[in-house]
Amino acid sequence: MKPSKLWSKDFEPDKMIERFTVGNDRELDLRLARYDVQGSLAHIKMLESIGLLTADELEKLTVELRRIAEVIENGDFRIEEGIEDVHSQVEFMLTDRLGDIGKKIHSGRSRNDQVLVDLKLFMRDELKTIAASVNNTFESFQRLSEQYKDVLMPGYTHLQVAMPSSFGLWFGAYAESLVDDMEMLVAAYNIANQNPLGSAAGYGSSFPLDREMTTRELHFATMHYNVVAAQMSRGKTERAVAMAIGSIASTLGHFAMDVCMFMCQNFGFISFPDEYTTGSSIMPHKKNPDVFEIMRGKCNRLQSVVNEINLLTANLPLGYNRDLQLLKDIVFPATTEIKDCLDMCTFMLEHIRVNRDIIDDPRYDYLFTVEDVNRLALSGVPFREAYKTVGMQVQHGEYKPNRSVHHTHPGSIGNLCNDKIRLKMQKVMERLN
Ligand code: ARG
């Protein structure tokens, strides 16, 4: 009978134990399959270079691994019943086709560094895809900021009418905020972009592994030199990724809240065509912002991912522990969800409608008090006196706003600096390679 475990000896593990320990790892591991093959291709090339495989064996293994890669890309790869994980499946497929040669591939490697290398490659790719989505959303915010730079809206502090703001400033703020999130993403990318392969079970190997070579082969920026540090990076890399995701989620969640509020009839600042809103089963008039409510909820939840990771990994002893497997459960869905939220946000921004006449409403008269104080101050009245004069007008109900605004300093409504913000984004994005 074919052994179903890489670690099979002369007993079969209890079925209950197996179900509990494997959990849904087989399903999650499908997302790692292509990276597992990439890692193995680099590993065997290195094994041949240090004399642990012959050139002929390398050739046969390479052909077979490439064939498996094709099966994966075609979507036909399966982890068979009873096989624990992707690493076992690939090795069994090789052994099935190549016999003893397949059994040589695991020299100088453990599933501990194998899963690590898979995860690093996976996270590196996921971060790049997320970055592309962030950049699309950034573009939309910038475009809208330019398009509506002359349309004023109320600015609030304490949720009380405060000073004139503009749609240019509002949209532009989210664009620039995404630049900061991208900084976090680049940091996570740099942490992921280090080669753990060769750390084996976590303590290296007595084979003279050429780790520089696998680092080059897998296009890592550098390696995790210390093999224990390499093992410690499991959880640490995921934490960095979760922080980046959380950071993006906080920006997006904030925007989603603004949209829900500004769509409310009491504000009436923005709207969407009917087909992008949702209705009520009882109230015939409803056009609800469910998209942004779901986005807000998802983004709030995504910010807790880092907490989950912190709790899962708190106080683990040094070296590999099986708890680490559960990280996949937490991180994999999060990478998909943040992408969904970003793409949905970009989609909705295509259709957003802006109310251009908000400011004419007398309820916003007081937005202009500071403008009037400043005008007086510019004409020579000391600021405190100008403040008092306008303050008394307000107090006695005699205030009449002058609605013209003239803001010129960088970052203000009259000088958004969107081109400078764009440049900042480009520079951060360039560091992703
Ligand atoms: N599925 C395992 C994980 O994700 C693979 C590594 C198994 N290693 C072990 N020593 N049991 O962690």
Strand order within the widest sheet? 1-2
* Uncertain parts: none
How confident overall, as mean pLDDT? 95
Q: Please provide the ordered H/E string of secondary-structure elements.
A: HHHHHHHEEHEHEHEHHHEHHH
Global shape: elongated
- Tell me the helix content: 55-70%
The distinct ligands, each listed once, are: arginine
Question: Rg, please?
Answer: 29 Å
Distance between the termini: 47 Å
Number of E-type strands: 6
Q: Major beta sheet, specifics?
A: 2 strands, antiparallel
Number of helices: 16
Strand percentage lies at: under 5%
Helix vs. strand class: mainly alpha
Q: If you had to describe this structure to a student in words, what would you say it looks like?
A:
- This protein has 433 residues and is mainly alpha-helical.
- Helix content is 59%, strand content 5%.
- The chain contains 16 helices and 6 strands.
- Helix 4 crosses helix 5 and helix 14 (369-378) packs antiparallel against helix 15.
- It starts with 14 loop residues before the first helix and ends with a helix.
- Bound molecules: arginine.
What are the defining features of this structure?
433 residues, mainly alpha, two-stranded parallel ribbon, 16 helices, 6 strands, elongated, binds arginine
Précis, in short:
With 433 residues, the chain is mostly helical. The chain has helices at 15-22, 25-29, 33-49, 55-73, 86-98, 100-104, 111-147, 167-192, 211-217, 227-263, 290-302, 305-313, 327-349, 369-378, 383-395, 418-430, and strands spanning 152-157, 160-166, 194-195, 222-223, 270-271, 353-354.
